[in-house]
């Protein structure tokens, strides 16, 4: 791969990264040992207008990403694994680009489970505002709200999970040191 190819890949990655948004962030870290759950709502919008000239269709779905750490590291578990994020090989080049640049993903299995989509009559902004209000009323601080164009739905969920993994890495490393598992 030439330097120009890598630069183009970076530009494409950055454009995709910026096209999705974490509308309501959570500050919950991942467990150092065992599985961690990252619940979310995803608000997507199809681009353009329908046959009647109405604005893009907005859909909301609830989901959960389970981040599992390998209990025993073997050659088979040395590489990260993604399940149910993308249709076939959609956007895998972008994901490999990110995952190849950090050790925080080593030995992780990420599994995405999402519920059915619900079509709403709101705009993306209105749907996000309504979900924020609902989560505030429920005093729920562990559920994120994501928004993205419909074509980037899987990437939005991956971005959310990767940001939580990267934010948790320093604390996880510190816990490993405290337990005597790292120098």
Description of the structure:
Helix 1 (3-19) crosses helix 2 (92-99). The protein has helices spanning 3-19, 92-99, 124-137, 153-178; strands at residues 21-24, 35-45, 58-69, 81-83, 108-114, 118-120, 144-149. The protein is globular and about 60 Å long. It is of the alpha/beta class and 183 residues long. It is built from 4 helices and 7 strands, in the order H-E-E-E-E-H-E-E-H-E-H. It has one domain. The termini are far apart.
The rough form would be described as globular
Helical fraction equals 25-40%
Specify the biggest β-sheet: 7 strands, mixed
SSE ordering:
HEEEEHEEHEH
The whole-angstrom Rg is 18 Å
Which key features would you list for this structure?
183 residues, alpha/beta, seven-stranded mixed β-sheet
How would you concisely characterize the structure shown here?
By secondary structure, the chain is of the alpha/beta class. It has helices at about 5-20, 90-100, 125-135, 155-180; strands spanning about 20-25, 35-45, 60-70, 80-85, 110-115, 120, 145-150. α1 (about 5-20) packs across α2.
